[in-house]
Write a structure and sequence with these properties.
Blueprint (H helix, E strand, L loop, with lengths): L1 E5 L5 H9 L7 E8 L3 E2 L2 E2 L2 E6 L3 H16 L2 E9 L1 E3 L4 E9 L2 H18 L2 E7 L2 E4 L4 H8 L4
Helix pairs in contact: 2-3, 3-4
C-alpha cells in the first residue's frame, strides 16, 4: 500500500504499470486518473490551487487505503494526490488497485475515489474569469460514499 501527496507532476501510465511489476500473482489492475478541467459548473477555469493539511492529509488517505485493504483481497494499492498550483489538463489524482481478480480491483478503486472525494482534507480554489472561487463538495459525491456503508 502506498499513499503519496506531492506537488510534482506524475506519469499515470508509469504509475499503473508499476502496480503489477514483479508480481505474477496480480491478474487485474484497475486505475483511475483525475485531471484538472478547463471548466466547472459552466465556468471557464484557468487553473487550480489545491491546499491540504500536511500530515493530516496523509493520515486520512492512509485510513481510506486501510479500509479498502480490509474489504478486498488486494495485492497492491496506490493513492497519489497532487497539491499546489495545477493547470487544466494536468493529472491531479491517481488511484490504482491490484488483485488476483478484476472485481476486487474495480470495487476497491471506486471505493477509494468515492471516499477520497468526501473524507480527504483537500481544499480546491479555481482561477476563473470572475476571480478565484472555492470548490464546494457535491451531493453526488456524498451519495456515492454513503453507498459503501455496510
Amino acid at each position: 500500500m502506498s499513499v503519496r501527496v506531492q506537488q510534482a507532476p506524475f506519469d499515470p501510465g508509469a504509475e499503473l504499470n508499476a502496480l503489477h511489476a514483479a508480481n505474477l500473482g496480480i491478474g487485474a489492475v484497475a486505475g483511475f486518473v483525475g485531471y484538472v478541467r478547463d471548466f466547472n459548473d459552466g465556468r471557464d477555469v484557468a487553473g487550480m490551487f489545491l491546499e491540504h493539511a500536511p500530515g493530516m492529509t496523509e493520515k486520512a488517505l492512509g485510513k481510506i487505503a486501510d479500509e479498502a485493504v480490509q474489504r478486498w483481497p488486494l495485492l497492491k494499492l496506490e493513492i497519489l494526490h497532487r497539491v499546489g498550483p495545477l493547470e487544466p489538463g494536468e493529472p491531479i489524482v491517481f488511484v490504482g488497485a491490484a488483485s488476483a481478480h478484476r472485481e476486487a480491483a474495480f470495487d476497491a478503486c471506486r471505493f477509494v475515489m468515492d471516499y477520497l472525494k468526501t473524507r480527504a482534507p483537500f481544499w480546491k480554489k479555481e482561477t476563473t474569469p470572475d476571480g478565484p472561487r472555492w470548490v464546494e463538495g457535491r451531493e453526488s459525491d456524498q451519495s456515492a460514499a454513503d453507498s459503501w456503508r455496510s
